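Question: does this match?
>
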Amino acid sequence: METDTTDFATSLPDIERVPSILAKLKAGYEDLVTGGREGRRKLWLLAQELQHAVSTAREMMTKHCLSEPAVLAVLVFGVETGLWKLMARNGDKPQPVEELAVGINVDPELLSRLMRHLGATGYLIETRGDEYLPTSFIKAMSLDQIGGGYPASDTSLMMAYHTDQNVFSLIKSKGYLASFNHLMGGYGQGRLPWTSFYPVEERLVVGADPSPVAPFLVDIGGNIGHDLERFQKKYPKTPGLLFLQDLEPVISGIKGLNPKIIASIHDFHTPQPITGRGDFCKSVYQRTRLTIIL
């Protein structure tokens, strides 16, 4: 019998191990004072074991491929802009994003998005909306001996491949684009699709241009069309065409797209060539950036 890959990717096969791990963690914490370095190491390993037991395969994949690379990018940003040095100078107190943005001369909305990710992953402590307390690690990032290991212009990827190409161009040239596309498809497994809560009929279908060639929906940064293919299956009778936009390395590798979906190259930093009645920001974009390009 064929395995349902979606169920497999989102199930918790090791959940029955949680009670025994928690018991070991409790005992390990009590022994921490007398256990020294070895006691701390055992506790750290148990914490990792617990995380694996309560995580789905999809969650682990997105952690490795999406969350952790984004953490690294924000940490590098903080080193290059002097953010971590500023937070360390400010001391152990909640620090508003707007004040930090002024201090390092960056867009406050951009900084808010970046710091929110570090708050969600435990690198910063979010005391309230757009206000953060530095952890011990973030304070350590202000030290040149620690922060100096995070250069953005000379990355391990560039060194390994002897290239100055960006990641999308590089993975295409190395033949890895299909793997990246599979990753983007896997990212959606187990997630609530936006069509399950966005009022598609009321806001998109009602009042839409009935022409069969009019743009109905544009997916910006839509990879090879995962979301639009799902949308077309759920709403097969919507009027007009569905437009898929992404960078050239991604668009040029698309094969077998639904004929109702039109693929086009767009760099996301120039004005949107297709205008419409509204927008829905599922991820990535800042609201201020949307007002410029849409």
